[in-house]
Design brief:
Strand content: 25-35%
Shape: globular
Radius of gyration: 20 Å
CATH topology: Rossmann fold
Largest sheet: 6 strands, mixed
Structural class: alpha/beta
Helix content: 25-40%
Distance between the termini: 37 Å
CATH superfamily: P-loop containing nucleotide triphosphate hydrolases
CATH architecture: 3-Layer(aba) Sandwich
Order of helices and strands: EEEHEEHEHHHEHEHEEHEE
Strand order of the largest sheet: 6-7-8-3-9-10
Number of helices: 8
Length: about 280
């Protein structure tokens, strides 16, 4: 199941023999992974498996201790920050909201890679922000202060800010965490729309396996800091893989609408239950 194809060094982003971590511990090691362009890739695995560490390393928030990460043919360690920000947009977990800022002004901060000492706000910047706000369905919130919004609305604002960067690659760390089911679906619908109709490449850390199976084009399973399985289709996921990655006995079913697999844990046997 682990990807053996030669890593492309010319387009998109790829990790080759990547190790990274915190303190004296390598949270991920020997990662060999190519992110396919124009698709939605979900990073999955139990807590502490290295999902967020891998995403941070791909975004250069965390330096590689070994190996390389290549973005459009260039080692990211050699790219200038503004070059990176024009190629790759990152939404970290629970980013802090600046006090008193409006939705429009926060989304406009996504234009920072395109600003400079001699280049000020332009019609192109205005158009990019307006399009990002429209795509994320928050036009009616543009003048609201971000701190007054619900969790689902805030997530849309943050995604709009990343979209305003106009990067082909989006990295999102747990974009559905702490949201109710309806808002999770809305965010994942939005991300799939960006991939299908706006030619974006999306990589996101997700905790809900069944949601990932319904939305992602590609699934990367990590455990104990290594890539255990790379699946090019949800239909390739099996109960053996779920047991291997999550140490969970699960029952496989097919979603009645999509026909894609859904995994349910075995019900516990309680004292007094009939045999």
């Amino acid at each position: 199941m682990i990807e053996n194809a030669e890593i492309s060094l010319q387009q998109g982003i790829a990790a080759h023999d990547l190790s990274a971590g915190y303190g004296s511990v390598n949270a991920i090691r020997d990662i060999q992974l190519r992110i396919e362009e124009g698709r939605m890739t979900a990073l999955l695995g139990p807590n502490g498996s290295g999902k967020s560490t891998l995403l941070s390393a791909l975004a250069r928030l965390l330096p590689a201790r070994a190996g390389t990460i290549v973005l459009d043919g260039h080692d990211i360690a050699q790219l200038q920050p503004r070059q990176m920000a024009r190629k790759l947009g990152l939404l970290p977990q629970q980013p802090p909201v600046p006090e008193g800022i409006t939705v429009f002004d926060l989304v406009a901060r996504g234009r920072f890679p395109h600003q400079g000492f001699l280049r000020h706000w332009s019609n192109q910047d205005e158009s990019a922000v307006t399009e990002a706000i429209t795509l994320t369905g928050i036009a009616d919130l543009a003048e609201r202060q971000v701190e007054t919004l619900s969790g689902g609305q805030r997530q849309r604002v943050w995604i709009a800010m990343v979209l305003a960067q106009e990067t082909p690659l989006l990295l999102l760390d747990e974009p559905t965490t702490f949201l109710d089911v309806a808002h999770q679906v809305a965010i994942l619908d939005l991300l799939r729309n960006l991939v299908r109709h706006h030619r974006r490449t999306v990589v996101c850390v997700l905790h809900d396996l069944n949601m990932a199976l319904q939305y992602a084009d590609r699934l990367v399973f990590l455990k104990e800091g290594v890539v255990r399985h790379v699946l090019s289709a949800a239909t390739d996921c099996t109960d053996e893989i779920v047991r291997d990655v999550f140490d969970l006995q699960a029952v496989t079913m097919l979603h009645p609408q999509t026909g894609l697999p859904v995994f349910l844990p075995y019900a516990p046997t309680l004292p007094g239950d009939a045999a």
